[in-house]
Amino acid sequence: MTFLKNRLVWPVAMLALLLLCALIFSDGFFDIRIQDGHLFGTPINILRASAPLVLVAVGMTLVISTGGIDLSVGSVMAVSGAMACLIIGDLANQNSVGGVTLAVVAAIALSLVLGLWNGFLVAVLGIQPIIATLILMVAGRGLAQLITSGQIINVQSSPYKVIGTGFVLGLPVSVLIAVAVLVIAALLTRRTALGLLLESVGGSPVASRLAGIQARRLTIMVYVVSAACAGIAGLIYSSNVSSADGNNAGNLIELDAILAVVIGGTALTGGRFSLAGTALGAILIATLDTTAQAVGIPPETTLVFKAVVVVVLCLAQSPAFRARLFRRPAARPAARAEVPA
Amino acid sequence: MIDVSTTPATNKSGPAAGRRRTYRPNAQYIPVLATLTLLIVMYTLGAVNYENFTHPSVILNLFTDNAFLMVVAVGMTFVILTGGIDLSVGAVIALTSTVAATLLQAGWPAGVVIPTVLLVGGVLGLGMGAVIHFFKVEPFIATLAGMFLARGVALLIDQNSIPITNGFWTGLAEARIVFEPGVYISAMALVALAVVAVAAVVLAWSRFGRNVYAIGGNADSALLMGLPVGRTRIGVYTLSGFCAALGGLIYSITTTSGYAGHGTGTELDAIAAVVIGGVLLTGGSGYVLGTVLGVLVLGMINTIVNFQSLNSWWARMAIGVLLFAFIVLQRLVTRRAK
Amino acid sequence: MGEPPAVLEMTGIRKIFPGVVALDGVDFRLLPGEIHALMGENGAGKSTLIKVLTGVYGIDGGEIRLSGRDVRFTGPLQAQQAGVSTVYQEVNLCANLSVAENIFIGRQPRRFGRIRWAEMRRRSADLLARLDLDVDVTAPLNTYSLAVQQMVAIARAIDIDAKVLILDEPTSSLDASEVAQLFAIMRRLRDAGVAILFVSHFLDQIYEVADRITVLRNGALIGEYRTSELPQVELVGKMIGKELATLEQLESRPRDSTEQLERGEPLLRAEGLGREGAIAPFTLAIHAGEVVGLAGLLGSGRTELARLLFGADKADSGHIEMGGKPVAMRSPRAAMAHGIAFSSENRRTEGLIGELSVRENIILALQAARGWTRPIARRRQDDLVAKYIKALQIRPDNPEIPVRNLSGGNQQKVLLARWLITEPKLLIIDEPTRGIDVGAKAEIQRLVAELSTGGMAVLFVSAELEEVLRLSHKIEVLRDRRLVEELENTGDVDADRVMHIIASGATS
User: Fold this and answer.
1) C327 and C321 in contact (C-beta within 8 Å)?
2) Mind listing the pLDDT tens digit for each residue in C83-118?
3) Any CB–CB contact under 8 A between C108 and chain B?
4) What is the DSSP letter of C299?
5) Where does the sequence pass through the membrane (chain A) (predicted)?
6) C42: which chain B residues are within 8 Å (Cβ-Cβ)?
7) For residue C370, which residues of chain A lie inside 8 Å, CB to CB?
8) Binary contact (A142, B316; C-beta < 8 A)
9) Candidates 3.40.50.150, 3.40.50.2300, 3.40.50.720, 3.40.50.300; correct CATH number of C243-253+264-339+425-508?
């Protein structure tokens, strides 16, 4: 598919450029060594750092493909981590695998409920997605702190710690989870008709309805999936630090996730989406942070850089901008760019 | 052709008689009245349950503590009335407080720093407005980029909190009208109230203000009615940038510091205040007075949480619940108007 | 009889949209103190002409002269300032603002930059009183009916000291007494010397108020006529046009009209089905293997009727029976489950998903019916799509290109293919041949005939009368949102007879 290549060409080029900079300016950036049978090194760190973002961005991609947006993902991460740590903290034996499994299941179940809530507001009450998910974005962190009674719950659970910091077959578990979710999402959307129907709803809700697509059900589903992804990301985050931090878990991740989706070539207006592009976008953002550190640029610069990336990509996507850039205004641009009936 | 289900959002109560007059309290006032009622109920609850709650300082402190938020929320009100959103305001607070502190540290006089800082905010807003209008980039994304940019530049200038020792600044921080010991209103609260007054007048009595409402009501119609849609739209983002910069100045004065971490999450508080104040998030309906009430409700929540010595998460939950209630209320009001 | 000099003269107006010539050298003039009707079917270029005149669109050729001076407005504001005011079909006011504000926004009376609200309210009330309208000018516009809103729009337009007043389908939401009220105002303004451009698809209204008529078709000028010298039938003929000659050269009539259909139990029966404001209750039976044609002008309710049968809009009266049993058409999905397919007239906005590929668009409805968990195997998709690309001669024949890159005719075929693979019992096609070239038209007509021969029932909606006559076993004639006549398409039914019914409502 040539168009897919075209769409991914910019993020790939940007990623290559970053890695090239890292190669030139930082010694041993690409060194991967095996220590205790585990892989270590900056590239592995980048992947580990990007795992939660990839997860959240995958869910966000599906939401955006239907023309929606989910601002609540960061809060859902916090809630999920809090729920898991609460249950583990109450376990008689924090190292019990069964107890940790229960905690993980409960956390994800709670995330699903939160997703259902978002979906209900958007699809049933018909509230604009950005507003509907704003509610949970604000209240969710309160909920997380309510669960943890406002304290940071520290847990000492080796099974739980595996999620964020463990290794299987030499690879970090968190990366494996992100890859697994990415693969499942890809299979789910591309091996079934889900992807097609989502793109159809995002492309034209009216035409989709007339083609007999149950847009409401699909819309609820994508918010549930998005919350589930955020829930898993929250577990990784909280496992990584062995605690639940309602304030900082997933702070501002919704913006990075949206950015990753846009960089990956999915338009905010919905329609065609690319999970591979999203994953690439998420890795690009994580690389940006890591490379900046490795090269010795103060990490704050990445914010300015992100701003530049957003502006460039959005302008490149804006038909109005391209029209102005490439066609000197011979004719005044039409006030409304639609062909009248 | 004619798809009846998509006719514009107008009152289609059948082709009834031409002079049908349905008289009921103006639906546009309902959310503001609801907010006012809520505020009174909260105050009464506080007064009944806690000692010292009725002390005048409780109310005056609401204004003092939330002066910067009030100014920012006023700018946000304009943006939201046109149906847009501005995510950059918190970052602009960070940027302006950092710039102000840095310049003051470098020995610039306050009389130069203040206009410079306000100009920075206004220009940033102007830029975002231009991108939104001319290139049809969604406000959400354009102001997100503005947010990254503003906070990024602030961090580039200085990552640490910069203390402000300038005499004018510290003087302003202490300036207040004292009614009796412990009962005072700060100069910054008066600045905020002045901004509110000016904004209310502009919205109600200027063509610019009315155009803001028209665009929020129906931008296509506004264009066909010959209103300057582009100028107005760019204007509101410029105004919001300006208000955020002023908010940043107030913040730097009350904290006598500039810091790139200032104002984190202020955009959410401002949006929440505007929504709770009864401004329709889709634009076209709402009042600055409502926003002020919204800010006061947020402040009152925090006050009660303090009095009850609850943790701050209760405040967040309460804000979330209120947001939900007001959004649903708005849905009901607009649906009934149809 | 001497004519005063024209207040507005448009000559050789050209307007091109990507891929479409919307106006092709159109001339139009308005005399002071006349009501001038602009007539034409969908896509004829009426709206474009109005938008060009009011500066919403720029022009690609021609000139506009107002009171003898060359003008080219860059926006509605300039047009208004020059004395050209417009009232649009969909009320283009801000419903959230008060009545008074809607009349004066952008030009409020001010003192020291401050809006004088009291003055504004007083002047609004005066103005509306002159239009015999007694409303509370401080109430938000959305508390009033659409009719009042329309009057307010007119009040705004005439207060701008208009030399030219454009009324673009202002009557589509008004009832008879409101229309009478509007006409009284129009006559009063005309007598005061205002030139009024009036667009309406209600013929009776045109003949009631218009002094002169200009007809457009397919973006070209057909002619300018005095209303008194143009019989209704001729007007309808000029609007609908006769591309028949070219079509008949392509092939003979796909159906022998004298051939009669063996009708058994109806496949579908609509009993008193209706929806307020869309179509008056009607009764209609469709049999297997039958082509039922819907004839009527734009706005006569033909699309509305089709949408009710498909469940795209909800009926507020009557019911539908299929195979003798009542069924509920709650949604398009329900209709599909009963074997009904609906190819919409707006293929770009209500039919195809532009950025999806031809293949994806073709399988969409079938896939939607199966649900997302039961995907159609890729090989089966490819086979089905290849089959229909071949059968319908869709060009280019690459199934993987985005459908928006196809020409109108080929897009239409893709939309038809989408529904044909669902193997419907009843296929509703709304204006499948609009805006496509003659060859593609003939192919689609032949396809419809073949499908019905194969036993499928087809409800065929078209603005082109000849096409309806060529294909249908039975013709349903609609007029003013009402089903007025059902004709068996036997040899003695011809275009003139149907046109008479459309024009007069009389069943001759």
Assistant:
1) yes
2) 888 888 766 788 889 999 999 988 888 888 889 999
3) yes
4) T
5) 46-64, 71-91, 97-117, 124-147, 167-188, 218-237, 249-268, 275-297, 303-321
6) 1
7) 193
8) yes
9) 3.40.50.300
